[in-house]
Write a structure and sequence with these properties.
Radius of gyration: 18 Å
Shape: globular
Largest sheet: 8 strands, parallel, barrel
Oligomer: single chain
Order of helices and strands: EHEHEHEHEHEHEEEHHHHEH
Strand order of the largest sheet: 1-2-3-4-5-6-7-10
Structural class: alpha/beta
Strand content: 15-25%
Number of strands: 10
Helix content: 40-55%
Length: about 290
């Protein structure tokens, strides 16, 4: 568990350790260096809103560089690590061994991988062989970018199989390309499948707190996703939540959630990854959600 600094503020359960830092997933030529990411992550974790900070997401190919920077930084507490498979499943055991051998620096929490188009029980069993029981296997079925209803149904069937097999489904919800941003109808379908399966899931690529334009595209917002999950649990209008652009209204709806409803929402919406900034704290604070 990420430990906040001594002067940290209590974060409401709806936002506790919600947003991961996905900076290391950005192209090396465009993104910050590993040293800058480590410095920012550790500073945020030790800051007054440190309990908001989730996992540090790292491709397996960049793990040696991350370990080297953490050795220099000498964090007071191990960093919660999400390993993203970018070198094939065969590289997972060595990466986990590296992380576990540096237990003072890293605690592996999740292993994330993209699924093949024909994801089935045999492939999912292979994933399970590489991922220990105390580490969550996160699997991203490939969302189709065409408008073929059959492709969409096949994708949703894959999401369902991933959840039923005990893995956490993953959805890319934003980015710099039009194909990175799914329509609200696809996000709604994903949420409904995950909620019906009762399986925790993760969303990455979010670029704002509220639905709006970024990188020249209309992007989904963090608050929209939270409200949408709350509505999916309650059987209410999910798509309207995803399309909302009034941050104050979305925040007001979230403040009205009961303790039990919040627990249910976070039991499902376990984590999200924000890009390019990992923690939009000022905007959430301005909306009265972190007090």
């Amino acid at each position: 568990m990420t430990t906040a600094g001594a002067g940290s503020w209590p974060i409401p359960p709806l936002f506790t350790r919600l947003v991961d830092d996905t900076s290391l997933l950005r192209p090396r030529v465009a993104g910050p260096g590993v040293d800058a990411v480590v410095d920012r992550y550790l500073a945020a974790r030790q800051g007054r809103l440190g309990e908001f900070v989730g996992q540090l997401v790292c491709p397996i190919s960049r793990l040696p560089a991350l370990v080297a920077e953490l050795v220099k930084a000498a964090p007071a507490q191990p960093v919660d690590l999400s390993l993203v498979v970018d070198t094939g499943l065969g590289g997972v055991p060595k990466a986990l061994s590296t992380a576990l051998s540096r237990s003072s620096l890293l605690t592996p929490r999740t292993v994330e991988t993209a699924a093949p188009p024909d994801v089935d029980a045999i492939w999912l069993e292979r994933v399970a062989e590489f991922v220990p029981e105390d580490v969550v296997a996160v699997v991203e079925p490939r969302r189709p970018t065409d408008d073929d209803p059959k492709s969409t149904l096949a994708w949703l069937d894959a999401v369902r199989r991933v959840a039923e097999h005990g893995c956490a489904p993953k959805l890319r919800a934003g980015g710099i390309r039009a194909s990175d941003v799914p329509p609200a109808s696809d996000v709604e379908d994903f949420l409904n499948v995950a909620v019906a399966a009762g399986r925790g899931f993760t969303v990455f690529g979010l670029r704002g707190v509220v639905r709006g334009e970024s990188a020249g595209l209309v992007q989904h917002g963090l608050l929209n996703l939270l409200v949408a999950v709350a509505r999916a649990v309650a059987g209410a209008d999910v798509q309207a939540a995803l399309l909302g652009t009034d941050g104050a209204e979305l925040a007001a709806e979230l403040r009205q959630l009961s303790v039990g409803h919040v627990d249910r929402v976070r039991g499902l919406f376990a984590r999200c990854g924000a890009d390019p900034e990992p923690a939009p704290l000022d905007q959430l604070a301005d909306l009265g959600l972190l007090a």
